[in-house]
Amino acid sequence: MSLIGRLIVVFIGFLAACFVGGMIVVVALLFPEFADLGAGPVDQGAIDILLGFGFIFVSGFALVPAAVIVAITEALYIRSALAYAVGGGVVGLACYLGLVPFHSDTLQFEGVVRRHLEIMTGAGIVAGIVYWLIAGRNAGAWRGPPPPPRKPPPPLPANSRPDAS
Known about the structure:
Blueprint: H1 2-35, H2 44-75, H3 81-97, E1 102-103, E2 108-109, H4 114-134
């Protein structure tokens, strides 16, 4: 029963992380438009639609890479916020590079926009932290306590080293 509860918590954490990541992507991409002093008031309905599309975009592209990160952290009892931030950054990077054309002859991505790459990676980092706040702090808890650390080996006898005179 605890595994089913853990899966529910992981799913809720993933949805919250995708929503926050989508908000960051939408706001960061629209920021140049908001910075224009001549712009009038922003239609709230349009913002709601954009946030919905941002959520769908991020959750659709991030599902498989995020599932890999979640499986690794659950299997290895990784509960560090830094690990989830790095994992989120890798997922954001993978989501962006998945959209950029790759030229197989030169083995290079063509058309990488640095600002967009930074936005997606930053959104992934923040989404990883949000996931950690909801589900990552208790990674692997459904299996019971982690295995205890091994005891160090006993010390060597006093005359066992040739240079100990």
